[in-house]
Fold each of these.
Amino acid sequence: MNKTKTYKIKEKTLLFMSFLLVAVLVIYSCETDEKQTVTTFNVLVMADEFDVDGVPNPAIWGYDTGTGFDGWGNNELQSYTDRSKNVSVQNGMLLITAQKEDFQNATFTSARLSTKGLFEQQYGRFEARIKVPSGSGLWPAFWLLGADCEDVGEQLDSNWPLCGEIDIMEYRRDEPTSISGTVHGPGYSGLTLPQGQITKSYDLEERIDNGFHIFGIEWGPDYINFYVDDVLYNQITPADLNVTPANLTGELGEWVFNKPYYIILNLAVGGAFPGNPDSDEIFPQSMLVDYVRVYKRSNN
């Protein structure tokens, strides 16, 4: 979630079929000759169904709290907390709730959950069934950071983006029918020019905040496939890292996605991506998560 985004929207209608056995499919874009490899991961490794009311399972989830550095690196307005008014499990759902209130030098509060040090995995299918909030100036996200990432958004001298980031889902009301999937790394991030992060949006042609959707990736050596519901809408590979030495850091692109990553779920308020909430926006606003599941291939 650390970036200023420029979107290149290229719609593809691609169907993903779930198989009980591992299958490798080649899917052709309607618009180009691009081929995409899909590998089904069918061995469940971790699942949180949020079926016990109260606090999220402490064996899986920890918290990032406070206002971070410069609004978690994105000019966000909230202070993250672990209070029940910002994060709780109720009726089979995880609720991450943004509140409008003065708290620790911030004008909003919310929550950011992380599996860092508790669950980390290299490769697999990572998915969550989520209902995003409908308010203005909100930034719900489901994403991964490299297990070696330290102090991302908390300190100026963190090792991001060298450690890598995979954004499975980000949403803003300004684009009510679209979500995006993105990767950041050395030479291709919100900090680098001429190429920034590698990203693509997908238009569902219906408001995303009207209901639940399953957002996921299938990730293996040298590829990351992005899904929403049963649609494969993007694949990113090392060939997409068209970085030149002219970027601000002088770095060349390096594929940093062949190592373990951990999961983050959060709801930010304000920031460079969604802008600030409207002055008359109604709070509280909640992001609902039905489940988070992670799979691996049977031969892993």
Amino acid sequence: MSFEQAITENQEIREAVGIQAELEKNFFETEPYKAFNRRLNAVMEARDKRLKIGLLEQKGGALIAPSGVGKSRMIDKAIADFHSVAEATGGREFGHQIVSVIVPGRATPKETAAEILRTLGYPVKNARDEDYFFNRIKDLLKHQRIAGLHLDEVQDAGRHTTDAAKEHFTKRFRNLTQNKEWPVCLFLSATLEARELINHDKTLLRRLRPIEIHPISLETDGENLREAMGTLLRQCGIVDQSGLIANDEFIQILMHAAAYRFGLAIEITIEALGEAILDGARTLDLDHFAGAYFIRTNNDDDLNPFMTQHWRGIDTTRVMDRLNSQQAEARKKGHRKK
């Protein structure tokens, strides 16, 4: 490849990834998102009302789903929308801000508390003990008028090998919802592994009323997915001339390729559009989805759901999968059908 060709290829890639980045800004509301958004709004508004009449114990919410569903983005969106609404309506007497913290991998209560303090702008010194950390959290929540605390990736709060350890972790954060000085609402988001932790603490479970996101299906999510795909195509000026979006089997294949997770189905669609743009195509076809899937997984073509009639039998959670386990590379190098 000549230097001029390399520049041209780089420009084409920059254009394609730039369009993909713009498409990724889209947020498509699903039923689980709407349910959690209502829950968050209800809990936060109830806190203000309850504190006005002297009721200290607060509630919260939890969003539980496999990775790739988009739960963190759902919660970020719900929090941002609540902030906007609260600010546009004069704020709330007892505060309305919700702080989000990602729980460090295999974190203890003390390590999680340290991460919360960093997020709140407090300099952390590891020599301090756990009680000190949680007392500072309570002080800062009140001082900064924080009304809600969101812990993301709670499944990573490991080291819960005993019932006593689980109880210790959940009690620490549950107590923040009933602090006499400044109780806050607690929101959790996590993968399915966190169900054991939440179920262990019946008091916490009662206060959270968790929402679990189930696998998508043609019947429950097909129309929403089709509308989202249509929006993405219109935004980048590409046409679905072959009628893929209207085809029920194609939508089922896409859902299967995405392991029945809405967020991943959108990701694959955006990546397929990127493939179309790189090809200089103005119409979207099945080959673009096949190419996008190969780039994501590096699987053999026969294990690409967009390239075989036997797509239902493919485990789409696996990458670098080979028909022959002794192979080191994809058997067909991802060449798409023509």
